[in-house]
Amino acid sequence: MEQEQLQKVAIGAAAVAVVAAVATGRLPRWLRVTVVLAAIVIALGVGLYGYRFFTTPRTLTVAVGSIDGELPKTVSAMATRLATINAPVRLKVVDKGTVIDAEKAFAAGEVDLVVGRGDVGNLADARAVVIVSNTVVLIVTPPGSKIEEMADLKGKTIGVIGGSVNGQVVEALKKEYDLDHLKVAFRPMVPFEAKQAIAAKQIAALLVVMPVTERYLGLLRSLFPPAGKQGLGLVPIEAAGAIAAVFRAYESYDLPKGTLRGSPPIPDDDLTTLRVPVYLLAKKTLDDDAVTALAKSIMDTRRDLVAEHPILAQISAPSTDKDAFVPIHPGAAAYFDGDVKTFFDKYGDQIFYGSMLLGSLTSLFAGAWKFMAKEPDPGDRALARLCALSETIETAADEPQIADLERQIDRILHAELDKIARRDADAAEPSALTLATYRLERLIAQRRAALGGTATRTPTAPRDTLLEARHA
Known about the structure:
Elements: H1 3-24, H2 29-55, E1 58-64, H3 70-84, E2 89-95, H4 99-107, E3 113-117, E4 126-141, E5 157-161, H5 167-177, E6 185-189, H6 191-199, E7 205-211, H7 214-222, E8 233-234, H8 240-246, E9 251-255, E10 261-262, E11 265-266, E12 271-283, H9 288-305, H10 330-336, H11 343-372, H12 378-394, H13 399-421, H14 430-451, H15 461-471
Parallel strand pairs: 1-2, 1-3, 5-6, 5-7
Antiparallel strand pairs: 3-12, 4-7, 4-8, 4-12, 9-12, 10-11
Helix pairs in contact: 1-11, 3-9, 9-10, 12-13, 12-14, 13-14, 13-15, 14-15
């Protein structure tokens, strides 16, 4: 319901409630007590539900996968840390073995989140929460190789670590450099096979896509035989900018001088290549508040884990550009832009108009209940009893009967005076009782005169007290 419509309904209900309250008069005590107790019970129930709703951590499932198994360990460490600090969002890690299988589970709706690359799988319904790391495309040649550029790979075989995971990278290179025409072959393999193939000189170069951290650089160097001062070679991808313009999942990147080795430096100058961001992706339909809390929790906890898992130092905010290849999730955008709304910012209008509507409905219910189960007010019964005595006085046959009527009047007045003294809301109005009493005194005097008795009588104590209560 739109805000204007909700406002109209609340105001209309309030107006009807006022009319109903005026039409039905005061509520009897038992109903007032019932309404108050019911309101207290409802308020406590709503408060308890709200407390549990807002304090119970939200658990999200995240699919991960990597060849070396390092990524699931890192994400599991983060999940453990989130539980330790009692974060509002928790992670349940599902290891799918490979990036492809993880993204398939995400696309099938089996999980809420996935750690995946922008060039793998169907990301139409995916939105970025954070960038987990940036992987770099490296074409590495053995020590002493004469291959220095892409054209030198003509007729050669390139080993591809990860196989189908890096299929899109291979296709981008083939298209840009026409490698099919150069008869360059690509052979998928795992690290153990790559080490054997390099030693047997079955491949001329090795293509890897990995984060640039000391751990992964060490693993890469271990695949090649030691060669003294001769170091590994790197083949630049000079057309990285053109490739990134066509295949928007990639970015042109300059690998810093000395990344593989410091002295002598390898590469000996900044090297142009491709970079592939690895994202923590969420369904675009995932609740904004949950994603906001998740982004904040991740950015807060990475500092505690970066010493044990250095790759977490690469966690950063995704691009907030509208034309970004992987759009940022609105919940994550709110956190990184500093535009996180408070509870009352988000629900202030609903609370205001909802409270008006609830109060109006409560009044309507109470009014309808009283209208259906209306009982005479106790004060009204006292006045009715006094008025009913007037007919009895007119037909009184003797003085004893008149004296009995006076005692009945006194008892009624005593009871009402006690209520007035206690400030009971159900007591009759003193002014109404005074008028009724004077009328009955006059009728009694007239009846005594008609019977030949005394025409006047000194008012009894209760009636004197009634006069005092009236003037108080």
